[in-house]
Amino acid sequence: MGYNSEKIAAMIRDDGVHKAVYTDPEIFDLEMEKVWGRAWIFVAHESQVPEAGSFYSTTLARQPVLLVREDEETINLFFNRCAHKGAKVIEQESGKSKVLRCGYHGWSYDMSGRCRHVTGGDEAYRAIGVDKSSACMSLTKVPSVANYRGFIFASLSPDAPDIKTWLGATATSIDNMVDRSPVGRLEVTGGTLRYSHDSNWKFFVENLNDMMHAMIAHQSSAQTARVMGKQLFPDDKNVPSEIQILSPFAENTDFFEEMGVHAFENGHSYSGGKTSIHAGYSGIPEYEESMLNAYGKEKVEEIFSLNRHNTVVYPSFTLKGAIQTIRVVKPISVDQTVIESWTLRLVGAPDEMLQRSILYCNLINSSGNLVGPDDHEAYHRLQHGLGSDAGDWVSMGRHIGAEEPNEEGGLSATGSSDMVFRSQFKAWKAYMTAANGAA
Fold first, then answer.
1. What is the signed CA dihedral for 240, 241, 242, 243, rounded to 10 degrees?
2. Given this model, what pLDDT does residue 110 score?
3. Distance between CA atoms of 207 and 382, rounded to whole angstroms?
4. What DSSP assignment string belongs to 320-351?
5. Which of 47, 9, 333, 352 is nearest to 199 (CA)?
């Protein structure tokens, strides 16, 4: 078709978007260049490369990259591509090594990316005036890398904005998650729950702060848990964590409306704030005592008073501070998306906190749980429903004009508002139509 800025802009209305933004492979390829190629994209947590020589391989806008810890203070991010024939230097997901050695011809690199060994020796390249010390023989660094409180983001753009400014109000969600550790530090623990959706990446990102679907899509799972909990534990005493985690997804409409949604520049958002589906979990006395000893009563009350549901750092990263889980978005094609779900440990907190986070992740975020498959089915129906000839436009006009400015420089609205989706597509349009791709 050939999309220019004018055609792309025409696909976004105040109250809806053209279905092609979810279904057209050409649009997807442009997104990889203009949105995923320019925004800050989440790469990893620094604890995934815990010591010198540790590495972690992943992707950045479909490009293979390699995160390497050079020393205690320095973490480097390289394109995972040998300077010789272009093979991926490291294929395994994570590990530790003294050198980074390409398995094709044996070129080797140190943790700073400098070439340390050329098979056959430097003399083979004497005629073209280079040797292993030449810059062209080294691994190539990703243009922009930033570490915000242990969370590492990268951009393919060399002129990416200041990370904290770009994060805006969502930086406080990261702050709150880290501050919930008595020593102010997080660690990724265990492996990842990785699963594939047969749908566009934007459906997942939108759904996280879609407060209207919860009591409908999750009725068969969460409502069942809620009913059984009342039958088995009528006095609300000693309710198992499983019931505490599942049953809030079946709260009534008023609960989710009151949680509210909040949208900000660059497509970021969060839901909840004063309350969320995590607010009713039982306390863990040992943890609360450790926090009081670390911070004092006033600071602890401030930390625990922030109770957000999902925070979306658009377009790639979502987090739940109260339960210490993150989900990472990996677009594969216009109708295929991989989601990675990770659990983090609050360093210095009792193991019971980690066990609850793992339980939450298994119950809610894994592909074989009781809640996640409800969403998987919804994404499937969305993607395939838009393949029909019933119409070209997707409605996003619910409660339009009713949002109000909030104290964090964004907009707030009732829980069932489509405001968050409109905000995301405002950012999407800015990225997609900017001459240089910058929003």
1. 60
2. 96
3. 11
4. ETTTTEEEEEEEEETTEEEEEEEEEEETTS-H
5. 333
How many CB atoms lie under 10 A from the CB of residue 30? 17
- Choosing from 148, 172, 195, the residue where a domain stops is 148
Q: Residue 41 has what pLDDT?
A: 98
Q: What angle do CA 71, 77, 155 make, to 5 degrees?
A: 140
Task: Specify the residue for token string 């972690």.
Answer: 56
In terms of pTM, does the model score above 0.85?
A: yes
The residue range of the domain holding 388 is 161-433
Query: In whole angstroms, what is the distance from residue 393 CA to residue 35 CA?
Result: 22
Nearest to 267 by CA among 211, 315, 212, 308: 315
- Whole-Å CA distances, 346 to 77, 241, 301, 307, 357: 25, 18, 17, 17, 10
Question: What SS3 string covers 246-312?
Answer: HHHHHCCHHHHHHHCEEECHHHCEEEEECCCCCCCCCCCHHHHHHHHHHHCHHHHHHHHHCEEEEEE
Same domain, 210 and 104: no
Q: Are 191 and 118 within one domain? A: no
In a domain, residue 429? The reply is yes
List CB contacts of 61: < 8 A, sequence separation 6 or more. 32, 36, 37, 41, 156
Identify the pLDDT of residue 314.
98
Q: Give the residue carrying structure tokens 């990261």.
A: 174
Q: Are residues 137 and 167 in the same domain?
A: no
Cβ pair 427, 266 in contact under 8 A: yes
Number of domains in the chain: 2
Instruction: Compute mean pLDDT per 10 residues along the chain, 439 residues long, and list them.
Output: 92 98 98 97 98 98 97 97 95 96 94 91 78 83 98 97 97 98 97 94 97 86 82 80 87 92 98 91 95 98 96 98 96 97 97 95 84 91 96 97 97 97 98 72
The reply to whether 165 and 257 lie within a common domain is yes
